[in-house]
């Protein structure tokens, strides 16, 4: 099977990782493009004998390391990007990468150690440091938009265990907007398909039209958002989810104060 065919399914997830890593869709996509250009120019740089996604992320790591001394691209007019840049400066890159590779991308400690070129103990230490640093910098009031009661309660427990407050749990677009206006949240966790056949996407668009707020989509239908075309949500979790994945996404969303970036 051609290499391009093997790595194609993993590109949307690499773009997600790159955006979360550098805090900017433009800068993240630039690194992904540099990764693909390097593979096209020299296919032998792609590691042999490893899974396609692991090899792709290893090539991305090389592009990231080569780019590490360049400043993060920040739009001076975008306060969220400015917040991300300031917080990135306070968090060591290896800690940020170790956290995202494990909790968000699902790589094992062994795989993360290989990708980062360090020991497994160092990976664990990096993750612990990243979580401690992020916890010190972020606290939020969270609105949960989810029509499945058990899932909503599970998310509420995760949010509260992280030290955040839950402003409300909405099951429809109308309930979501009422909760949004009653107590403006600092973070929104949103499903796509809601109880009355309304759309979590529409709810998020309406909220973002009023004011910016970080959003994490948690859905069984990721294909509705991971289209490979811009714009896409910065944070997207697929159901059924793992608790560490949600915890990492919440921490990263608050760390970067990043909006969903969907819709026109």
UniProtKB/TrEMBL annotation:
CDD domains: REC_PhyR. GO terms for biological process: phosphorelay signal transduction system. The keyword Transcription regulation does not apply. The modification 4-aspartylphosphate is found at residue 191. Residues 141-254 form the Response regulatory domain. InterPro entries: Bact_response_regulator, CheY-like_superfamily, PhyR_sigma2, PhyR_sigma4, RNA_pol_sigma_r3/r4-like, Sig_resp-reg_PhyR, Sig_transdc_resp-reg_receiver. Keywords: Phosphoprotein. PANTHER family: RESPONSE REGULATORY DOMAIN-CONTAINING PROTEIN, STRESS RESPONSE REGULATOR PROTEIN 1. This is Response regulator. It comes from Glacieibacterium arshaanense. The lineage of its organism: Bacteria, Pseudomonadati, Pseudomonadota, Alphaproteobacteria, Sphingomonadales.
């Amino acid at each position: 099977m051609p290499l391009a065919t093997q790595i194609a399914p993993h590109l949307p997830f690499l773009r997600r990782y790159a955006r979360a890593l550098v805090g900017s869709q433009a800068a993240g996509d630039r690194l992904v493009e540099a990764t693909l250009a390097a593979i096209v120019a020299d296919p032998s740089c792609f590691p042999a004998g490893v899974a396609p996604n692991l090899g792709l992320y290893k090539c991305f790591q090389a592009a990231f390391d080569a780019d590490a001394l360049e400043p993060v691209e920040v739009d001076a007019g975008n306060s969220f990007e400015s917040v991300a840049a300031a917080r990135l400066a306070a968090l060591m890159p290896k800690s940020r990468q170790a956290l995202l590779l494990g909790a968000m991308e699902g790589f094992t400690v062994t795989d993360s150690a290989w990708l980062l070129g360090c020991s497994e103990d160092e990976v664990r230490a990096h993750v612990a440091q990243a979580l401690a640093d992020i916890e010190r910098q972020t606290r939020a009031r969270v609105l949960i938009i989810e029509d499945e009661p058990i899932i909503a309660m599970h998310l509420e427990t995760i949010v509260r265990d992280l030290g955040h407050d839950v402003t409300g749990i909405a099951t429809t677009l109308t309930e979501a907007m009422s909760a949004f206006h009653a107590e403006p949240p600092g973070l929104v966790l949103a499903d796509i398909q809601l109880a009355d056949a309304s759309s979590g996407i529409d709810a998020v668009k309406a909220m973002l039209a009023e004011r910016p707020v970080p959003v994490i989509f948690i859905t069984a239908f990721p294909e509705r958002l991971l289209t490979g075309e811009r714009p896409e949500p910065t944070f997207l979790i697929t159901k059924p989810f793992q608790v560490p994945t949600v915890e990492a996404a919440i921490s990263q969303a608050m760390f970067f104060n990043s909006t969903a970036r969907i819709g026109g």
